[in-house]
Amino acid sequence: MKNLRFNTFPLPGVKCASLLCISTDGRYFSSLGIFPPFSHTDDVIFSSVYILIAVSALLLSFLGAMANVETKISANNNKKLVCYYFASGLLQVTEIDPFLCTHLIFAFAMFKHGKLTEVSPSDIKLFGQMANLKLKNPALKVMLSVQNGFSELVNSDDATIKKFYNQAIHYLREYRFDGIDLDWEFPRANEKEKYSRFLKGFRDAIINHSQNSLRPQLLLTAALPNNVRKLQNYDIDTLNSTLDFATVMAYDFHMFIKNADITTGFNSPLFPPANEKKIYSTVGLMDYYLNTGFSSSKLLVGLPTYGRTWKLKTAENHGVHAPAVNKGDPGPVIHRRGVFTYPEVCSALKNGSHYVWDSEAEVPYLYNDLLWCSFEDPESAANKAKYFLQKCGGVGVWTITFDDAEGKYSNDSQKFPIITAVKKVLMGADNKDSSPVSQPVL
Q1: How far is CA 234 from the centre of its chain?
Q2: pLDDT tens column, 249-291
Q3: 15, 225, 311, 364: which sits with the fewest CB atoms below 10 Å from its CB?
Q4: So where are the chain's domains?
Q5: In degrees to the nearest 10, what's the CA dihedral of 136, 120, 203, 15?
Q6: DSSP letters of 301-324?
Q7: Given the residues 95, 152, 174, 185, the one annotated as active site
Q8: Cβ atoms of 373 and 358 closer than 8 Å
Q9: Residues 250 and 272 sit within 8 Å (Cβ to Cβ)
Q10: How far, in Å, are 73, 74, 257, 378, 395 from residue 432 at the CA level?
Q11: What pairing do the DSSP bridges indicate for beta strands 80-86 and 103-112?
């Protein structure tokens, strides 16, 4: 090896062999990333360099696969477990298990003046921390979700939109994201065609970038509404042809019920409760999506790690559809009226709240004095994952931030108990076991 010299392979265009591709500027592309250009000389010894890099890549890939063999969700079924990370300070990026989810999506960035940009300068540091999770699990896909600024962008002229595509792709690459998630809530009827054009153009730009850079295509995904009337403002054929996958936000159903703020109800029932329409349930909504012709492998069923709370009118009337005065008082974690994170749910249960499992809706609720809360727990989340295991492409979770990150509230001290329960189903470990997974401490 003493005669080995690292020099450029003087090759017009680009050639690839197995794990290695070489571009005209001397960059080496492999599954490990990009090697820097080498200096130009007339004396080239390439074969040994290629063998060394290829064998090293194979070895590292093998070691990575072995390290991940017990935690890989997609080993047999390619099911996705997509976890949104809400940057609120409740959960540090560095506390996230990089093997828990197949995809981790940072929420949120925004479109502003025709550009993709961060909401806060402090988000840049979090971008880096999230990308660094891939150093531990190279199979993890890290993405950036955008929520604001859509209407201004899609109504811009063609030149502005084309410029945006290039800027957005560069931005995603700069911060080492594997793709972008579009969470537009929601297009208006007169924006349906414009959004379709935007998606088609974005997909074309992603393909062109991949071909020119010899890098994998960036992922293009979306979050879709829990309201079928709003879904009419999306073109299903365009979604099917442009998106890699889409998460259906199958929660916040009770908001469509008359007098929702003063009547208790389920946030995300699997099946419709009595006297409510089927479409206001996870099964009803997902069936509707599937009947539109949406590709089942691209559809992910969304589930929440948070609960919705109410302040009851009287402590004696505490059932489903009981009269309430208003949304529930703020909890001790996020201090937000009408919302409990899963740790807040578990704290309420530990402090004397009554746990009730509704066998009709297949979800739990709790009550205590004037407090009433509909929530997701590991058992209900696992049941949803089982029901849709053969019907959809996986599960999308809003949000990993609201799960029990430290495992303080489950019997076996399981960290992220709701997401872990879903993961066990997707891995196949829990498909034959109907027993509850990581039940809350009562």
Answers
A1: 20
A2: 999 999 888 889 999 999 999 999 988 999 999 999 999 999 9
A3: 15
A4: 15-67, 77-306+378-427
A5: -50
A6: EEEESEEEEEEES-SS--STT-BE
A7: 185
A8: no
A9: no
A10: 17, 18, 36, 16, 19
A11: parallel
Amino acid of residue 276:
E
Calpha distance 98→133 (Å, rounded): 6
Kindly report the number of other CB atoms within 10 A of residue 166's CB atom. 12
Q: What does pTM read for this prediction?
A: 0.82
* Cα gap 438→435, rounded to integer Å: 10
Q: Which DSSP letter does residue 68 get?
A: T
Read off the tokens for 45: 């010894």
Question: Bridge-partner residues for 246, per DSSP?
Answer: 222, 299
Residue 368, beta-bridge partner list: 371
Locate 265 and state its tokens. 């109800």
**Structure-block tokens of residue 234:** 């999306």
Mean pLDDT across 167-183 = 99
Residues in CB range of 328: below 8 A, 6 or more apart: 308, 309, 310, 311, 337, 338, 340, 371, 372, 373
Which tokens belong to 376? 């997701």
DSSP 3-state percent helix, strand, coil across the chain (nearest 5): 35, 20, 45
| 185 a catalytic residue | yes
Question: Per CATH, the architecture of 77-306+378-427 is what?
Answer: Alpha-Beta Barrel (3.20)
Tell me how far apart the alpha carbons of residues 442 and 438 are, in angstroms, rounded to a whole number.
12
Q: Residue 105: enclosing H or E segment and its boundaries?
A: strand 103-112
